[in-house]
C-alpha cells in the first residue's frame, strides 16, 4: 500500500472543496510537473488557476513541494503566490513535515496531490497522509520519470483491480 494509489482523480481540477471537507482535509501539498502544469512548463493552465482560486476561497491551505531545483520551482510558485519547498527529496517525507508545520494543520488534515507513485504517493504513505493521485497532464520529459512510469503500471492496475475508480 506504500505505492498503490488510494484515490485517483482525472485531473487536479476534479478535487473539490466539498470532497476535501468530507475527508476532513484542510491543506494540500502540491506537486508541479504533470500535476499543476505540463512537465517543465512555467505556464499554468487557466482551469488550474481557477481551481487554485477556488481552493483559496474555500480556505484550503496550499504549499508546493517539488523535487525540482530552485530555479524551476521558485519562479513558478512565486507567480502563483504559493509557499514552496524545492529539492524536497520525495519520497522521503521531511518536506511534508515542514509544509504541515508552515500551514499550521494537523497531519490528518493534510493530503499530498501528485502524479508519481514512487515520489508523491510514497511520500504521502510514509508520512501517513492521503495521496491524491492525478492522471499526468502531459508527457514526461525526464529519463528517470519515464523509467519509473514503467514500474508504476502494476500499481495503477492494482488500484483498478480492487475496484478503484477515477474520480
UniProtKB/TrEMBL annotation:
From which organism does this entry originate?
A: Faecalibacterium hattorii
Instruction: Report the NCBIfam families cross-referenced here.
Output: HAD-SF-IIIA (TIGR01662), YqeG_hyp_ppase (TIGR01668)
> What name does this protein carry?
YqeG family HAD IIIA-type phosphatase
Example GO molecular function = phosphatidylglycerophosphatase activity
One Pfam family this chain carries?
A: Hydrolase
Domain of life here? Bacteria
Upper lineage: Bacteria, Bacillati, Bacillota, Clostridia, Eubacteriales
Amino acid at each position: 500500500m506504500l505505492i498503490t494509489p488510494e484515490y485517483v482523480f482525472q485531473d487536479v481540477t476534479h478535487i473539490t472543496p466539498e470532497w476535501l471537507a468530507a475527508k476532513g482535509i484542510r491543506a494540500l501539498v502540491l506537486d508541479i510537473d504533470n500535476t499543476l502544469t505540463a512537465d517543465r512548463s512555467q505556464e499554468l493552465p487557466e482551469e488550474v488557476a481557477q481551481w487554485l482560486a477556488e481552493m483559496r476561497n474555500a480556505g484550503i491551505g496550499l504549499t508546493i513541494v517539488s523535487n525540482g531545483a530552485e530555479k524551476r520551482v521558485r519562479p513558478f510558485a512565486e507567480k502563483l503566490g504559493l509557499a514552496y519547498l524545492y529539492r524536497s527529496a520525495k519520497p522521503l517525507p521531511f518536506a511534508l513535515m515542514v509544509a504541515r508545520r508552515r500551514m499550521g494543520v494537523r497531519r490528518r488534515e493534510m493530503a499530498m496531490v501528485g502524479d508519481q507513485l514512487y515520489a508523491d504517493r510514497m511520500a504521502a504513505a510514509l508520512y501517513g497522509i492521503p495521496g491524491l493521485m492525478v492522471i499526468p497532464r502531459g508527457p514526461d520529459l525526464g529519463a528517470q520519470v519515464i523509467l519509473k512510469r514503467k514500474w508504476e503500471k502494476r500499481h495503477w492496475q492494482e488500484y483498478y483491480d480492487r475496484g478503484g475508480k477515477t474520480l
